[in-house]
Design brief:
Layout: E1 2-3, E2 10-13, H1 14-20, E3 23-31, E4 37-50, E5 53-62, E6 69-70, H2 72-78, E7 80-83, E8 88-91
Parallel strand pairs: 1-6, 2-5
Antiparallel strand pairs: 3-4, 4-5, 7-8
Length: 109
């Protein structure tokens, strides 16, 4: 799966959708990298696992054999980062024992 911090959502292709049989959620309009707007099926829930992290999200279905993408929403939920020099996904070094989600608009008490 390609890690794409410029994409918000997770994306799978039609072949993966056929194999996994995720439930259809809805059609959504999506602004693509070339500036065009397309309408895509969204399916889910999809559970994504990386290292000691898990995210549960929906995924848009790309046509044919397009490369699946991991977008910023599941990356944020798993508290992972892109190590640019090594060009790989890593767990957040500040939280190696497990994901810590950001809820800055909420205060206890």
């Amino acid at each position: 799966m390609l890690v794409d911090s410029g994409a918000y959502e997770m994306a799978i292709n039609e072949r993966i959708q056929e194999q996994m049989g995720f439930s259809f959620i809805e059609k959504r309009r999506v602004l693509l990298a070339d500036g065009c707007v397309g309408e895509f099926d969204f399916v889910g829930p999809v559970m994504v696992k990386f290292a000691n992290r898990t995210a549960i999200c929906s995924a848009m279905v790309l046509p044919g054999e397009c490369d699946p993408l991991l977008g910023s929403i599941p990356m944020e939920e798993m508290d992972v980062m892109i190590h640019s020099r090594r060009q790989e996904l890593i767990v957040n070094p500040a939280n190696p024992e497990g994901a810590v989600l950001s809820m800055r608009g909420f205060q206890k008490g």
